[in-house]
Specification:
heterotrimer; A mainly alpha (536); B mainly alpha (57); C mainly alpha (290); A: 536 residues; mainly alpha; Cytochrome C Oxidase, Chain A; 0% strand; disordered N terminus; B: 57 residues
Chain lengths: 536, 57, 290
């Protein structure tokens, strides 16, 4: 944060904004500036990334060998559920929102986000929500309650109806996180619709903004449904309703429908911002214009639309009627078409490009290869007949970590390495960045590749103990996970080092970049584009 | 890698960049290389597909 | 992508209002945290729960009053132009869109149980069902639900429909008054709208009392009672919010705020009220009537 303060001092002098600007901690509590709020989002995401990572390392340590070594099954269940909730809601989503806050106004030539106080509120809802998620762990140490939510992040009824106080904490954490997401989405939509620089038509909008626009629509359409679902869960738990109880005419499967009506679009909510930033990175380091801009925009829209009508492929084994199975299988597979368009465009952007391989480009390339595996294994899982075997196995765990770690987290790291010089005014340490990349890629595959084989061999997910024949692959996976986890400390160090100082970055930063944000100084002043540029 | 000075006045300076500014020959060489690599990867992918197609269990 | 910019200022450069730093959002988050924490503790029978809830509610109300006062003050002192106005309009539209999605979850639940889960319970293979002889019908409390009498459509609910539809008309009449600068028509229309909304709420309270004491229709009355109270309850909550919003803009109208050209707050509240109205029509048809 110290970097940002120095740049702000500079900017405050320039813009006469300093007089009423509180200093110290108050300044971060009260700020209405998109850059400061963006920084808070990103720092919060980084901290929660390590919190969620520590939880899953404990899980992997338990799974290092068969048998129960370190913890009781109840605690194991709490760790996996809270790991997922933290990583999805408190690490990946805030990171993407941090990108949006920093980049969208810079990219579209806007003076700030459209609703700055709402923007601040959206961020400051996150720490209370994260506290609610993790507080039950601490309360349990004092003998209050029985720990955090132990149902997995999916909160399936009836287990969640019968669960302990941790479920209530999770329900309200989800409510608050949902409000935060909706506020952020409204802000992003309004900013993109109303604050674009004169002359920037929607078809000149940078792809990152397009990706986030579709994300915001998805959030507004689906987060309230999750809120409704967990509200019904709450009333089933405490107020005697029978939404998810067959004896009262309800249905536990109804919860799965409602949850995944949110849960599947959530995958695209996490990935669309990354798909949006990829063409910027690939085009920069290929020194070529983005290939297929329009095709990518239409692919985003197609994925957004298809994303909300395929949800039941997450519970194909729950006993759905055959016509429903066929519909959800084919519609799910249809998503691979627009996704293939995106892959084609990324690769075509590189085709005959003068490529160089700085850290962000390495992460982008790693993303394309590994996220491609997520897509291909997803096709396998969408197949109703095959899914009967793979459902709820480690194959699924491996698949969605290829999607959300290699797709989501590595995508976010691509963005951080790409934009950090613009934000801080300092170049990133390339040596350490490359070290971080290679350690991440190798240990990631070491962790999750064996899990495909474990799943194919029949190891179910979400269990603290397993049959002996799964021992070797689990040991390999745990070793990989620890290397992966500790390599991320390099990332934290690189970020910290870049904020503190380093080689000065030029305004353009990278040789092949294009876009409004690169016309601003590095770092940009606290208030940029107060007078909007005109796009020709 | 040339160290460039940061301009305090905030004026845009398009020419300066810390990333290597490649010469024309180098750019051309890299364009060729990326094209060559694409053909190699495409061939490998096609070969894998064909081998998989012909494999009988 | 063409993003070649001319960084020279446009001649008619616009200035967008970016507010000064504010502590209200942070305080509001804190209030919501306290409310949630207190509610969780209360539901799990920890003594301090209600007090923490009370503290949270106090903070929330304090912030709402002050934050909205500040925004109204900024508006009246002319800080917002057409550009900011447009942002507020977009923001309200997408906020209402998220509310539509929220109600869609409950309507979806209603349709799911009526079309799928209750009939499925009645047509299960006798070898696999716990409840042989259960026949599908709607309203239903399921195989093991409590006995209850469903709420008829043509008594209080029909009256409430009339009240809400009329309130939508009076609100539009008030809007016309504002557009034609007839302040008395504006004020009277708003007052009528508020009175109609409050009577609606009164009848809802009466209906709930009737349901619990005479019909045996409670939240626990199977899936009918659950969907009935979830849908009407959240709708009633939104009517309450809408009525408070109407009262605020009524107070502002009495103070002479809003002109034919500048009246975002009025329109935002009106949109919200019409949205609540439309949701009620859905409720009347699918919860009470068919």
């Amino acid at each position: 944060m110290s970097n940002a303060s120095s740049l702000d001092q500079h900017a405050a002098d320039q813009h006469g904004y300093g007089a009423s600007h509180p200093s110290g901690i108050l300044r971060w509590l009260t700020t209405t500036n998109h850059k400061e709020i963006g920084s808070m989002y990103l720092i919060f995401a980084l901290i929660m990334f390590f919190v969620g990572g520590a939880m899953i390392l404990a899980v992997r340590a338990e799974l290092f060998q068969p048998g129960l070594q370190l913890m009781q099954p109840e605690f194991f269940n709490q760790l996996i559920g809270v790991h997922a909730l933290v990583m999805i809601f408190a690490a990946l989503m805030p990171a993407a929102t941090g990108f949006a806050n920093w980049q969208i106004p810079l990219m579209i030539g806007a003076p700030d986000m459209a609703l700055p106080r709402i923007n601040n509120w959206g961020f400051w809802l996150l720490p209370p929500a994260a506290t609610l998620l993790t507080l039950p762990f601490i309360l349990a140490l004092f003998g209050i309650g029985d720990g955090a939510v132990a149902t997995g992040w999916t909160l399936y009824a009836p287990l969640s109806v019968q669960g302990g106080m941790g479920v209530d904490f999770a329900i309200f954490a989800i409510h608050i996180l949902g409000i935060s997401s909706i506020l952020g989405s409204i802000n992003i939509i309004v900013t993109i619709f109303n604050l674009r620089a004169p002359g920037m038509t929607m078809m000149k909008l940078p792809l990152f903004c397009w990706g986030w626009l579709i994300t915001a629509f998805l959030l507004i359409a689906t987060i309230p449904v999750l809120a409704g679902a967990v509200t019904m869960l709450l009333t089933d738990r405490h107020f005697g309703t029978n939404f998810f109880n067959a004896a009262g005419g309800g249905d536990p499967i109804l919860f799965q429908h409602l949850f995944w009506f949110f849960g599947h679009p959530e995958v695209y909510i996490l990935l669309l911002p990354v798909w949006g930033l990829m063409p910027h990175v690939i085009s920069t380091f290929s020194r070529k214009a983005v290939y297929g801009y329009k095709a990518q925009v239409y692919a985003f829209i197609a994925i957004g639309v298809l994303g909300v009508i395929v949800w039941a492929h997450h519970f194909l084994t729950a006993g759905l009627p055959v016509p429903a199975l066929l519909y959800f299988m084919y519609s799910t597979m249809a998503i691979s078409l627009p996704l293939a368009v995106l892959f084609f465009c990324w690769i075509a952007t590189m085709w005959r490009g003068a490529m160089s391989f700085e850290t962000p480009m390495l992460f982008a390339l790693g993303f394309i290869v590994l996220f491609g595996m997520a897509g291909l294994t997803g096709l396998v899982l969408a197949d109703v007949a095959a899914d009967a075997q793979y459902h709820h196995s480690y194959f699924v765990v491996a698949h969605f970590h290829y999607a959300l770690f290699a797709g989501g987290i590595m995508g976010v790291m691509t963005g951080v390495y790409f934009w950090l010089p613009k934000w801080t005014g300092h170049m990133v340490d390339e040596k350490l960045g490359k070290l971080h990349f290679w350690l991440t890629v190798i240990s990631f595959n070491l962790t999750f590749m064996p899990q495909f084989f474990l799943g194919l061999a029949g190891m179910p997910r979400r269990i603290p103990d397993y049959a002996l024949q799964f021992a070797e692959f689990n040991a390999i996976s745990t070793v990989g996970a620890f290397i992966l986890g500790f390599s991320q400390l390099i990332f934290a160090y690189v970020v910290w080092k870049c904020i503190r100082g380093g080689e000065k970055a030029s305004d353009k930063v990278w040789e092949g970049t294009e876009g409004l944000e690169w016309d601003l100084p590095s770092p940009p002043p606290l208030h940029s584009w107060e007078i909007q540029p005109v796009i020709k | 890698m040339s160290q460039t000075l940061h301009r305090a006045d905030g004026e845009n300076s398009a020419a300066e960049s810390r990333a290597p500014n490649f010469s024309h020959e180098e750019l051309a060489r890299r364009r060729k290389a990326s094209q060559r690599l694409a053909w190699v990867l495409g061939t490998v992918a096609l070969a894998l597909y064909l081998i998989g197609f012909l494999l009988k269990r | 992508m063409t993003t070649h910019a001319n960084t020279h200022a446009a001649a008619d450069a616009r200035h967008y209002f970016v507010p000064q730093p504010s502590l209200y959002p942070f305080m509001l988050s804190g209030g919501m945290f306290l409310l949630a924490l207190g509610f969780i503790l209360q539901m799990n029978a920890f003594a301090p729960g209600p007090w923490i809830m009370l503290a949270g509610t106090g903070v929330i109300i304090f912030v709402m009053v002050n934050w909205f006062s500040k925004v109204i003050g900024e508006n009246q002192s002319g800080e917002y132009g057409q550009w900011e106005d447009k942002s507020f309009r977009y923001g309200m539209v997408w906020f209402i869109a998220s509310e539509v999605a929220f109600f869609a979850a409950f309507f979806g639940t209603l349709f799911y149980v009526r079309v799928l889960s209750v009939p499925a319970l009645a047509t299960m293979d006798p070898a696999f069902t716990l409840w042989q002889g259960f026949t599908s019908a709607w309203p239903s409390a399921g195989p093991k639900g409590a006995n209850f009498t469903p709420m008829g459509a043509w008594g209080v609910p029909a009256l409430n429909t009339a009240l809400l539809l009329t309130s939508g008309a009076t609100l539009t009449w008030a809007h016309w008054g504002m557009m034609k600068n007839k302040r008395s028509q504006l004020n009277l229309g708003l007052l009528l709208t508020i009175l109609l909304g409050v009577s609606f709420m009164g009848f809802q309270i009466y209906e709930y009392h009737h349901a619990y004491t005479e019909l045996g229709l409670t939240m626990g009355a199977g899936v009918y009672g659950a969907t009935f109270f979830m849908l009407t309850g959240f709708h009633g909550f939104h009517v309450t919010l809408g009525a408070i919003m109407l009262m605020v803009i009524y107070g502002r109208c009495l103070k002479g705020h809003f002109t034919a050209e500048r009246h975002f707050a009025f329109e935002g509240v009106a949109w919200y009220w019409h949205f609540v109205d439309v949701v009620w029509l859905g409720l009347f048809v699918f919860v009470y009537w068919v």
